[in-house]
Each structure stands twice: as C-alpha cells, then as structure tokens.
Amino acid sequence: MTAPWQPLLDWWFGPPATALEVASVRQGLWFGKRAEQDREARERFGALLEQALKGGLEDWAHSPPGWLALILLLDQLPRMVLRDSGRAYAGDLRAQALVERGLAQGWDRQVPAIARVFVYLVFEHAEDLALQVRAVQLFRDLRAEAPAAEQSLFDGYLDYAERHRQVIARFGRFPHRNALLDRRSTAEELGFLQEPGSGF
C-alpha cells in the first residue's frame, strides 16, 4: 500500500537519481513561477495543504519520508498554491518546528542529499537571524559532503542561503513580503526593492 505522502514526494523529486540528475529535471518546478505548475499543485495537493495548514497530518511526521513530505506541504506548496498572498507564508512556523524535531533525530541524514535542500530551505525562509545562520551552516555542510561532480550544484544553494542571511541581517525581515503581509516598508527597504534579485 502506497504511503499517503508518496505521491507528493514523487511529484517533487521524480524517480531516484543523483542530485544533479534530479535537479536538472526538477529545477523549473522548484524555482520557476509558472501558472500551470501552481495550478497542478493546487489540484493535486490543495486539500492536503489545507489540512496541513490547520495543524493536521501530524501522523506523517513519524518517519523521515513523511516528515519530509509534510515539510514540503508547509513550506514549498503554499508558495505555489497561495502565491502572491500573505497566506503563502502561513506554514512557515510549523515547518520550522518540524525541521527542529527532525534535525534532533538526524532525519535529514536519512533522506537524499537533494531532499535535504528543502529541509534546510525552511530555515532560509525564516525571518530570524539565528535560523538564517543555521541555514548557512547546514548548506555549507551539505556542500562539503557532496561528490566533486555535484559541488557546483550545492555551491548555488549555499550562495542563496548566504544572500538570504544578508537580507535578514540587514533588515530583520524580507522586504519583498511587506506588501503581502500589510507591513509598511521603510525608505531603505523601498530602495533595496529596486535592486535586481531583491525578491529572490
């Protein structure tokens, strides 16, 4: 019998392969902004997402694969299904708590290296400098453990983690979220938002 979280993992990562192979096929899904992908995420996983945002599916978090899938539901799927709304960040705090629990049990070491990226991204998404510092260290460790042929891939993820940390160190929050969360931007933040790449 297929685990209830397996269709999400299959959709997100595809068949087992090297990190480089998975990323080369899936990068567009992970980091692209395409209406058809957002629509597919909503149609396939929208009901599960709403359950997760209401505190449900806790039984998923009893094994590394289910834990990983619930993290995806709380951290990645809202950014697709609820894109351009404040609710896109509604799962962040619960995702952070899940990551903390799983790291304490070593569960990040029990999923593939490319999947660890999406565990550590939860801290990279946090408007909290201590979590940002941890994200950079986790990505640094991940890069150090990667095979030589894949280090450039993980260099890219580390670079993004460092850039996120710099924004939080400077502003204490991500200025590009301000409008969606009804927060007033400072003059410095408004200037920053004019810079290329300021919204990641």
Question: What's the SSE blueprint?
Answer:
Elements: H1 6-13, H2 19-31, H3 35-53, H4 64-81, H5 92-104, H6 113-124, H7 129-145, H8 151-171, H9 187-193
Helix pairs in contact: 3-4, 4-5, 4-6, 5-6, 6-7, 7-8
Can you describe what's shown?
- It is a single chain.
- This protein is an all-alpha fold.
- The chain has a single domain, classed as Tetratricopeptide repeat domain (Serine Threonine Protein Phosphatase 5, Tetratricopeptide repeat, Alpha Horseshoe), CATH 1.25.40.10.
- The protein has nine helices and no strands.
- It is globular, with a radius of gyration of 17 Å.
- It starts with 5 loop residues before the first helix and ends in a 7-residue tail after the last helix.
- The mean pLDDT is 96.
**Unreliable spans:** none
CATH superfamily: Tetratricopeptide repeat domain
CATH architecture: Alpha Horseshoe
User: In percent terms, what proportion of residues is strand?
Assistant: under 5%
Strand/helix succession = HHHHHHHHH
pLDDT averaged over residues: 96
> What summary fits the major beta sheet?
none
Number of helical segments with 4 or more residues: 9
Number of strands: 0
Overall form: globular
What is the C-level CATH assignment? Mainly Alpha
The SS-based structural class is mainly alpha
Through-space gap between termini: 39 Å
What is the helix fraction of residues, given as a range?
55-70%
Alpha-carbon Rg, integer: 17 Å
Overall tally of domains: 1
